[in-house]
Design brief:
Elements: E1 4-8, E2 14-16, H1 19-22, E3 28-33, E4 40-44, H2 45-58, H3 61-71, E5 74-77, E6 83-85, H4 88-94, E7 99-105, E8 108-112, H5 114-126, H6 128-134
Antiparallel strand pairs: 1-7, 2-6, 3-4, 3-5, 4-8, 7-8
Length: 139
C-alpha cells in the first residue's frame, strides 16, 4: 500500500476527495464495497470495466454475479469543490463516521475507518512472509 491521507466526513456523508488521489480515478468514478475487507474501493470507470471483464473471463458467471452484487457498486462524481456523497449503506459497511483514511493500492483508492485500517495492516504485516512465498515476481 502506498499513499495515506485523511479527510473529515460531513454529517450528511459528503467527503472532500483530495485531488492528488482523485487524479488516478478521475472526477467520475466507481465506488464499491470491498469483498475481503471492511473498506470502500474507488476505481476509474475504465479500471472497473477491466476488473469486471477479467472476473467474468476467469470465473464462473454465477459466482461473479454474486460477488458483484456483494460489492454493490455505485457511480459517483465530485462537485466543483471536489466533494461527493458516500451513500449511508456504504458508510455503515466501512464504519466511516467522521475521519476517513485513504490508501492507494495499485490503481484504486481505498477509504478506511482508522481502527479497521490498523487491524488490517497489522494482520498483513504478520502474514507478509507467507504471502511473499506465494507471489511470483518477474523482473
Amino acid at each position: 500500500m502506498k499513499t495515506e491521507d485523511r479527510a473529515t466526513l460531513s454529517a450528511s456523508g459528503r467527503l472532500n476527495f483530495p485531488p492528488r488521489l482523485r487524479a488516478g480515478v478521475g472526477d467520475s468514478f466507481v465506488i464499491a464495497k470491498a469483498i475481503r475487507e471492511r473498506c470502500l474501493q474507488v476505481y476509474s470507470k475504465e479500471h472497473w470495466d477491466e476488473f469486471e471483464k477479467n472476473l467474468y473471463r476467469d470465473n464462473d458467471m454465477l459466482d461473479v454475479d454474486a460477488t458483484l452484487r456483494d460489492m454493490d457498486k455505485r457511480y459517483a462524481s465530485v462537485d466543483e469543490q471536489g466533494r461527493f456523497a458516500i451513500p449511508a449503506a456504504f458508510r455503515e459497511f466501512a464504519g466511516l463516521e467522521t475521519e476517513v483514511h485513504f490508501k492507494t493500492v495499485g490503481r484504486k483508492v481505498e477509504f478506511w475507518n482508522k481502527e479497521e485500517l490498523d487491524k488490517t495492516m497489522a494482520a498483513a504485516a504478520a502474514s507478509k512472509e507467507e504471502r511473499l512465498k506465494r507471489m511470483v515476481f518477474r523482473g
